[in-house]
Amino acid sequence: MTRTTIEVTINGVRYRHEVEPRLLLVHYIRDVVGLTGTHIGCETSLCGACTVLLNGAAVKSCTLFAVQADGAEITTIEGLGEEGRLHPIQEGFWMKHGLQCGYCTPGMILAAYQLLQRYPDPTEAQIRHGIEGNLCRCTGYQHIVEAVRYAAEKLRSQKA
Amino acid sequence: MAKKFVGERVPRVEDQRLITGRSQYVDDIVRPRMVYAAIVRSIYAHARLKEINVEAARRAPGVIAVFTGEDVREAIGPVPVASQLPDLKIPRHPVLAVEKVRYVGEPVAVVVAEDRYQARDAVDLIEVEYEPLEAVVDPERAIAEGAPILHEEFGTNVAFVWQLSGGDIERAFREAEVVVSQRMVNQRVIPVAMEPRGVVAEYHPGEGQLTVWTSTQIPHLLRTQLAAMLGLAENRVRVIAPEVGGGFGSKLNVYAEEALVGYLAMRLGRPVKWIETRRENFLSTIHGRGQIAEVEAAVKRDGTVLGLRYKIIQDVGAYHQLLTPAIPTLTGLMATGPYKIPNLHVQVIGAFTNKMATDAYRGAGRPEATYMLERMMDRIARELGLDPAEVRMRNFPQPDEFPFPTASGLAYDSGNYPQALRRALELVGYEQLRQEQQVLRQQGRYLGIGISTYVEICAIGPSPALPFGGWESATVRVEPTGKVTVLSGASPHGQGQETSFAQIVADELGVGLSDVRVIHGDTAIVQYGIGTFGSRATAVGGTAVYGAVQKVKEKATRLAAHLLGEENVANVAFEAGQFFVKDRPERRLTFQDVALAAYLAKSLPPGMEPGLEASYFFEPSNFTFPFGAHIAVVEVDPETGDVHFRRYVAVDDCGRVINPMLVDGQVHGGIVQALGQALLEEAVYDENGQLLTGELTDYAIPKATDVPWLETDRTETPSPVNPLGVKGVGEAGTIAATPAIVNAVVDALAPLGIRHLDMPLRPEKIWRAIRGA
């Protein structure tokens, strides 16, 4: 199969690879680049586990081809923060028990990232609407709502 | 000793790796020279396998091997069933179908290729010639005369008939003033853990060892079974449950693919990965529920329930999985719920159907029992013109009647059922709501209040009651630096026991939470264990940890006495991580001092072994019986049939609480899965056995916007079954909430004369019911 060269910046690091045109972005991130924090839950863009930020917008990386990301800047969960230097959203999920098995969590956190950019002080309904495209089977969502509220407050206080 | 951690809302210690994307689930595992497997699955629900043409697939780019059922039938033993029932019919369940297929999604062949795209391409090149047979998907039809037979050797689709009796059911119905009966369908649902199943297997020929990474709740039980299926010595099989992305019972099993991928790794001499697609997860990971029941209650006019008669048909599916036949027996055991109902008869008929097997799904038989009984309590109240809360109160045993013997032969450990219901009624403002309901009804608005009081059977369980052991194991290993490693035989996958077990140990040893590390899920590291299911990990596994840490403390205290020059160990105190002689408190040894001394072993008391480590296998004397009361308040829109939640109040009693934040999380998640079954979810097969709800597009699990704010509260009645007093909480929400929600909807529609609706209560069904009323 013919291969195409793409250049993608992920979490600030520039990558250049030859890929099959049919390679899904999520497989590129996971199998080619080796960042496995982005998960696959359905490959049909319904569950949101594979959510990443593509040029700042939350997208489901299972329904994009890697070639479509040529030239893009991507942020995955690994680029958001790390132990000892957590992003306020990650901290919110930790403090408010916004995760159990953790499988949906990276996608959920990045969906929350976009939501908080749109609504810095979101209502409960805005939070629920903002994460509606991300499924979680463990938490019942309530602690996720609290985690996002926690992050919103922290982000606002950092700006102030 | 003062408790610093137990009982506190301690944030989880396992979260750092999960929130930063550094955890390792099965699909994250990469081994050198690894190849990928993909599975050809039956497109027919019932058919003879005529010919499988694999030549094109074998020649496809990157393909390494293709195997069919005939190729592996001698090499891999059948998929096991652990449950035993009298006269249980156990069909041979091959890992790849031989001669016949019996459900859509049954594995027929496997392809191995260099990458996952090539493997999936090659699957499409395999031509399977089928001779379609008539399928049977309705369990009632399956056991009726003239139905197509799945397993010819039995001559029937009846997999088992199981009965349970207590008291004198005939007399109860003779003495009844009123008989209330209802047919109810507890629909098939699909667990849908967010992480599909997956297996990586690697064989090391020099050591003769097969390592299997798999998304499982039961690594040790699986190891024993895999060794048998593959003809390996058990100590040459290592099973690792890495990070597991949700289970809910669906990974409490031994699946064909787990043995198949292990076989491929041995046969091909290369590590093999297989990751289930979501479509495969719908088709060929176990389903839950699937009961049709006729329920009859013998009651007195004051609401006292004298007896219950259940005739249940359990939809088995095409084959048994590990615990399939056991699930409805749990329904039978819990059939009298939290009530004093002295007479009971339960009959369960298991029916083979051309569908995926049912097995343990969160609650596993108990949600079915609670649903039927709680619907019946509301039906009885309606029939007799009594308040549903009052009918429940009238039938509760009182707190001084515990241990409470049930007609099903159990002894409930402890409980205060009236208190939990009273609390829930207060929180929701029940009296006021009932008044408001009257007012709204006059305005043509449909407000409904649904009560569910429940008791569940947890901490599963005493070994005599289980096909495999019901105990759990723990090792507490104090390292020379005083750091503590806990090896637990439980296999948590989101429940948070790395934290709650650390809380227990840190309090007992007076060390910090970060000084304790809990390891689980690797059979080469952890002593044999049973696993995580049946709300058992804390009540049984946590008690094993507690038992092991007592042994460690006892030895450390003896060593401390020796080091402090005190002959009488009873004079040595251990407080806040320090040992001292009670009347000479000025000289103290830290826990770390004693740990180091145990390993340096310069001076040990006579007969004491060096080191500081203990194992404990805890065998519970009984199950535990958590309980509670949930109340849903909904308004039904008569124009659209939509159900709008106004309140949801949950009062749960799971005994002593180690970490209230984790308990809330379990309750929330359980309630929302129950909400899914009550309002949204249903596995729909068409008459040919095609799964119509085989993707997330067609099968609706709750989204964030479907869920109301959940108001949780607790009462705390310690269990006498274990020294921690804990009962377990993993399934409470799923058990309690389904009938609370359905009762609320039916209550809302009561003015229209609607007495019962089968789940799921989607708007269309409600709308039609309103139109038809």
TrEMBL record, chain A:
Q: Does the keyword Oxidoreductase apply?
A: yes
| TM region(s), chain numbering | none
Q: Which domain of life is it from?
A: Bacteria
Q: Which SUPFAM superfamilies match?
A: 2Fe-2S ferredoxin-like, CO dehydrogenase ISP C-domain like
Listed name of the protein: Carbon-monoxide dehydrogenase small subunit
* Keyword terms of this UniProt record: 2Fe-2S, Iron, Iron-sulfur, Metal-binding, Oxidoreductase
Query: What InterPro entries does its record include?
Result: 2Fe-2S-bd (IPR002888), 2Fe-2S-bd_dom_sf (IPR036884), 2Fe-2S_ferredoxin-like_sf (IPR036010), 2Fe-2S_ferredoxin-type (IPR001041), Beta-grasp_dom_sf (IPR012675), Diverse_Oxidoreductases (IPR051452)
What is a single Pfam family found in this protein's UniProt entry? Fer2
Q: Which organism is it from?
A: uncultured Acidobacteriota bacterium
TrEMBL record, chain B:
**Domain Aldehyde oxidase/xanthine dehydrogenase a/b hammerhead, which positions?**
20-134
Pfam family, any one: MoCoBD_1
Which NCBIfam families did the record assign? glyceraldDH_alpha (NF041018)
Q: Name one GO molecular function term.
A: iron ion binding
- Show the SMART domains listed in the entry: Ald_Xan_dh_C
Supply the name of the protein: Xanthine dehydrogenase
> Which keywords appear in this protein's UniProt record, sorted alphabetically?
Molybdenum, Oxidoreductase
Which SUPFAM superfamilies does this UniProt record tie to the protein?
Answer: CO dehydrogenase molybdoprotein N-domain-like, Molybdenum cofactor-binding domain
Q: Which cofactor does it need?
A: Mo-molybdopterin cytosine dinucleotide
